[in-house]
Amino acid sequence: MSYQRPNGHTFSLYLRGGAGTRRLDGSAAARGRPGVLCIMPQEHSSEWEITDFSQFVHLYVPDDQMRRMFAETFDRDARLMALPEVTFADAPALARTLRQMTQAMLAGGHLLAEEAMTQAINDFFVDPRYGGMRPCAISGGLAPHVRRRSLEYIEAHLGETIRLQDLAAIGQLSAFHFQRMFRASYGVSPHGWVAHRRVERAKSMLSGMDPIAQIASACGFSSQSHMTRAFKLGTGVTPSTYRQRQ
């Protein structure tokens, strides 16, 4: 098995077997076993030999989503995120969460699986052995006070039309430069961030009894069908299905 500079980050947890799996471009003595974790950052390259049965789960996370989650969770510049390459490591907390995610997916519990995935990413970042909470040199990007005011503006206007020009005016920047610097700081474009926050607000409102069409309007979607498309893209299920599972 060969991985050559793939897109996205991969978390791999061995569930069963694995003794016949070893990494050819690493330590020949290290072999897989139940409960060990491998982390393959975006654009890594590796060679593996697999000679017997194993069962494992792979969690694939696109780089922009990973950076957005990092910036949102820890209120830090997305460029501070750093993922190490890890082979056959013991990470009990992360392994437990990935198992929960797998069990939830197999049972059709998309909401529980989504929560477990978010927890898994958080567990990884805060783990002192494997996490990405390591400082690195950065330049450019939005100033901290502009980042804070931009997010406050977005949260306060999610139910309205949010224009790039209005966000750019917060930092007294051109729309082009604001968009470029926002992506550098948060890993996603302003549009991607707003879309994510609207879906998150919709998720919280779906625990109540408001009609879905009313929730769509309150979250800034142009129509109920617009919200349904965006919600399914972000969560894998429709708003009505999400509400039923709640």
Automatic annotation (TrEMBL):
InterPro entries: AraC_XylS_family_regulators, Homeodomain-like_sf, HTH_AraC, Tscrpt_reg_AraC-type_HTH. Residues 148-245 form the HTH araC/xylS-type domain. Pfam families: HTH_18 (PF12833). GO terms for molecular function: DNA-binding transcription factor activity; sequence-specific DNA binding. SMART domains: HTH_ARAC (SM00342). Keywords: DNA-binding, Transcription, Transcription regulation. This is AraC family transcriptional regulator.
